[in-house]
Amino acid sequence: MTTTSRPQPWALVPTAPSSRRERFLRRMRAADLLTSLAVTSAAASVALYLAYGGAGDFITLGGFVTSIGIITGLVGTDLILVMLVLAARIPLIDRVFGHDRAMATHRALGKPAIYLILAHTVLLIVGYGISSHLDPVAETVSMWNLPDMPAAFIGLGFMIVVVVTSLVIVRRKFKYEFWYVVHLLSYVAVLTALPHQFSVGAMLAVGTGQRVYWIALYVLALGGIVVFRIAEPLVKSIQHDIRVTAVESIAPGVASIHMSGRKLKALGSSGGQYFIWRFWTGRTWWHSHPISLSAAPTDTRVRVTVRALGDGTTRLGRIPRGTRVSIEGPYGLFTDAGRTSPKLAIVAAGIGITPVRALLEDSRVAPGETTILLRGPEDENFLWDEMEKLAGARGAHFYTSVGPRARGAHSWLSARDVARNVSLRSVFPDFKNSDLYVCGPQAWTDAVIADAKSYGLPDHQIHAERFDW
Amino acid sequence: MTRRSHVFETMGTVVSFAFDDGEAARIDLERLQGTFAHFDDRYSLYKPDSELSRVARHELDLADASDELRAAYAAALDWRAATHGEFSPHRPDGIIDLSGIVKALAIERAGDELLDGGAVNWCLNVGGDVLVSGLDPVGEPWSVGIVDPQDRAALVTPVRIAAPRRACATSGSAERGDHIWTVGGSPSEFLQATVIADDIVTADVLATAIIAGGAPALDRACASWDIDVLTVDRAGGLRATPGFLHP
Amino acid sequence: MRVRAVLGSILGSVTVLVIGWQAGAAAAHNAAELSTASSSGAATTPTGAATPGSTPTPAATSAATSTASPSPSAGSSSTGSSSTASRTIVGATEETPFGPMQAEIIVAGTRITNVKLLQETDMGGRSAEISNYAAPILRQEVLKAQSANVDTVGGATYSSQGYLASVQSAIDKAHL
């Protein structure tokens, strides 16, 4: 382990710990409020049915089954709308939860939503069938002849296809791009299933409050997607006119992409945030990438560093000069804004060094507040020199851990360092009162976090940037 | 109020037009007769030179026929769809025959012209199909006596027709030799059907459809349109909607 | 999920569910009142089904009668005089793809005199009569008519010759 620390005169005014704590508490309050609203919306969809008088429909067997069928449809659709809101990359959601956590919740809601919609379909076919004295097959045929029902059945079919291809087992068999296109079918499914909700049954009839509320939910969810995933990137791309100026290979399989543009400072990113990039060449245009800036942007220049981890990222290393680039963002809570505690502990490995470098560049820290640990094999140290310079400028302790990895619980460190009893507690002074920012390969990051948790570090003090969504 | 009657022949039947003496100035009897004559001249299949006869003989293409004829034909087709074929602008042999709808269209136009002229209280009876406006000479809703099909000198019952239900049309399967072709070809189970509706075309078409389609047509017509009905079957039995007996 | 988020979710959910429950109970109460008022013989507002003029517009699709239950059944005619007291029997509400359906039958003696399908309109629970039923009646039940008491005669179209012998011609003669 080598250590280098060079105290330097200090220009930036550090942020007071108390205001950090305030910011953190405010964010947590907002998070709890939004979470409560989301859960309440599911209850509200049931309340719509109660207000329509549905409570009285449970008397006959057919009515009972039908009512449950209607309720499962309402809650299932509400969950799907919440999933859409989470995937819309709404800035508020990103600021409060972080986009990575929003997408984790999005994925978690998928199964319950589809189960509810399947139950909705089966229960209504059985329930209406009992009331009309038809067997399920005859009832299905009868329902197929109702207006908008064929579209609804097709939407259900699309949803099933999307869910099946999203199952991890199936997903691994296909390329990412194929899965992504299939996933887009889910938007089509939402739209094809929309008309039947208004034309079948009388709950959402014209003139009811329920109709207004339901339409408002759809406007929010679909509108969010249109505004933040379609309109905003379009506008930003036109505004900033970003093009590739050079692709620099800085290590085997690692390249820095330099780009030019206009008014790039207006992008408003804080160090540690990432953008979602789309490079418009014939072979790369349909694949967007979340990549952190590897340096703070000037008004006309911006830089990202990518590592070839798959087909998509490999092709990025070969983009010609002049390629047009469109971006969405910035996203991410891997920033100074996420700070909650007096001390700052940074652990990075591999390509994870990029957001961490930008974070440090943008952070307002007092001398001695920050400690940095970089991990890598013997020969890989791109950007480490820049990190070391930054560490000096920020008055931060700087350590590196190189060499083959250790075994067991501390596998994220090198074997040599573990043998010398190096640990999170030994490297980072006052570890319990630190914000831990980790970024690197997925499995390695997980190991660091597990180690930190084993020391009792609370969740809100652990910040990890994940790019695997 | 004194009641006046004006009677004249047209379209193979007789029109009885009753109105209040005080409104005589606002009523153009010549125009009234002219309207019926116009429809008769254009649509009568008994007149070889009528436009409809020429279409029926394929001397004139439907596409080249007058707008009014084509509109009448289109309306009749819409009604055929709505009554599931019980009412049809074609005879079983395929010949186009709009007589089922033309009388009603003529009455409707005549009624509109009367209202345009400012006449408020009148009763227009064309061969048993009645369209009224306003009240009778003693200030009551006009009262229509429904003929007993088994004894044409007798009436089954009177019924008062008041706005908005201004039209009363009756179809029978035995009078005049005009055969209403039933669905399936067997004799109709109803001797007579009287329909009261907001407009004369609906009343006339549905009365015909009920004769042609029998009891299922009766139930469907009652459920799907805002009407009141009285039917007389072959045994003389009656069926009526509640609104017919207690308007 | 954090404790505060859990508590907030529970509180919000219970609140909206209770509000919905109460709103539904109030609506059901109003609808019950209206349907008892309409079944005691007062005329219900007819739903505007036929548009005046020559184009037909049926109010309910024929599919409705096949999926809603119960279906109207013809009553059997009783011999002798029928009692004037009529009873109203209302069935349970069934949820159909067209909305809630409820059947109301009016029985006089042992005969069904009217069958109504009550369907909530989309203006908040008012029952509307959407079906009409032509029930068999006895000749004795209808008012007697004489040509002197009616203004005009309705019947199947008579020919010009047929007119001469008809009741209508007698009425016309009296007023010419």
Overview of the molecule:
The complex is a heterotrimer of chains A (469), B (247) and C (176). Chain A has 469 residues and is α/β, with parallel strands linked by helices. Chain A is 51% helix and 16% strand. Chain A has three domains: 2-14 and 335-464, Nucleotide-binding domain of ferredoxin-NADP reductase (FNR) module (Rossmann fold, 3-Layer(aba) Sandwich), CATH 3.40.50; 52-234, no CATH class; 241-331, Translation factors (Elongation Factor Tu (Ef-tu), domain 3). Chain A has helices at 17-51, 61-87, 91-97, 99-132, 136-144, 149-166, 168-173, 176-192, 194-199, 209-240, 311-316, 353-362, 384-393, 415-419, 424-427, 442-454; strands spanning 2-4, 242-251, 254-260, 274-279, 289-292, 301-307, 324-331, 343-349, 370-376, 397-402, 434-439, 462-464. A six-stranded mixed sheet of chain A has the order 1-10-9-8-11-12, with helices on both faces. A six-stranded antiparallel sheet of chain A has the order 5-4-7-2-3-6. The longest helix of chain A has 35 residues, at 17-51. Chain B is an alpha+beta fold. Chain B has a single domain, classed as T-fold (Roll), CATH 3.10.520. Chain B has an eight-stranded antiparallel sheet with strand order 1-2-3-4-7-8-9-10. In chain B, helix 4 (99-117) packs across helix 5. The longest helix of chain B has 25 residues, at 200-224. In chain B, 51% of the residues are buried. Chain C is α+β, with helices and mostly antiparallel strands and 176 residues long. Helix content of chain C is 32%, strand content 21%. Chain C has helices at 3-39, 62-67, 160-164, 167-175, and strands at 86-90, 94-96, 99-108, 111-120, 127-129, 135-137, 152-154. Mean pLDDT of chain C is 64; it is low at 38-83 and 120-130. The chains are: A alpha/beta (469), B alpha+beta (247), C alpha+beta (176). Strand 5 (142-148) of chain B pairs parallel with strand 7 of chain C, so a sheet runs across the interface.
